Amino acid sequence: MNVRGPFPPLRWRLGRGPVFATAVHHAHELRAELRPLMALPECERAREEDPYTDHWARMAPSWLLPGRSRFEVDLNRPPREAVYTRPEMAWGLELWRWPLPAAAVRRSLALHAQFYARLGDLLDRLIAREGAVVVLDLHSYNHRRDGPWAAPADPRFNPEVNVGTGSLDRRRWGPLVARFMADLSDFGLHGRALDVRENVKFRGRYLAQWVHARFPQACVLAIEFKKIFMDEWTGVGQVEVIEALGAALRGTFPGLEESLGRLS
To answer: What is the reported pLDDT for 188?
Structure first.
């Protein structure tokens, strides 16, 4: 595990069992050369990141976590789109005080390559031992974009948990997806079922596509938690809800292992 420095580019653990997790947008740190170039206020940058998702990722026996913000390099995009050099690449946001130097872009893309090399190595080792694996690709999404005092986005189109399965082989992995969603919903939140739906807001992006193209023995579930566990405008988390959602996620692990066992 890489632990050098206060904000190592990558941290990882390889444990027992077939469940692996990552949270590629959890981090907030930028490397030193980019900080004076960043024009976006820190609070606005934080609002587009996925805080607390690393806490859930570390509940899995095996995990891989980057230590840098998506505004340094977005690990859920292909390399040609992974560094936000223009506003249209980042929701129209004006990110940089002046154009990024080409050398800075190359250094950011080097982290992208490093992440995927490490991900491939860890999955190679895990699949060799377990035969098949589930990758939990953990994210979160905003639902109060009209402001902190405005009504939240319509829940009909914004599930509490969106499970993205756009690039997986439904014939092979369909029963596992159904079991996962049922277990997550049934575990519930504060005595009620979680609203868990598939491919409503997001279908999964580059990480899921990359893994599925290279590892037929891996099933990636791109999981987006609506930010009901925090104030998305202040960044303040609700500890009880974060822990409850984490417990619900962890409660799916036995079913995932059982589903994988039926495929072997």
So the answer is: 79
Can you read off the two tokens belonging to residue 159? Answer: 């599930």
Q: Is residue 147 part of a domain?
A: yes
Q: What angle do CA 8, 12, 16 make, to 5 degrees?
A: 165
Q: Which position has the token pair 């919903």?
A: 185
Residue 65 near residue 26 (C-beta atoms within 8 A): yes
- Sign of the Cα torsion 210, 138, 100, 113 reads negative
Domain membership of residue 1 (yes or no) is: no
pLDDT at position 255 is: 98
Helix (H) or strand (E) holding 99, with range, is: none
CATH number of the domain at 120, please.
Answer: 3.40.630.40
Question: Which parts of the chain have pLDDT scores under 70?
Answer: 1-7, 264
Nearest to 57 by CA among 157, 138, 122, 140: 138
DSSP notation for 186-249: HH-BTTB---EEESSS----HHHHHHHHH-TTEEEEEEEEESTTB-TTT--B-HHHHHHHHHHH
Does residue 77 lie in a domain region? yes
What pTM did the predictor assign?
0.95
Which residue segment(s) compose the domain that 88 sits in?
10-263
Q: Which of 105, 128, 131, 15 is nearest to 64 (CA)?
A: 15
Residue 2's pLDDT is 40
Please tell me the total count of domains within the chain. Answer: 1
H-type helices in the chain, by residue range?
Answer: 42-47, 53-57, 102-130, 170-187, 206-214, 239-250, 253-263
Q: What is the pLDDT, as a whole number, of residue 156?
A: 96
Q: Does residue 165 fall inside a structural domain?
A: yes
What is the pLDDT at residue 1?
A: 41
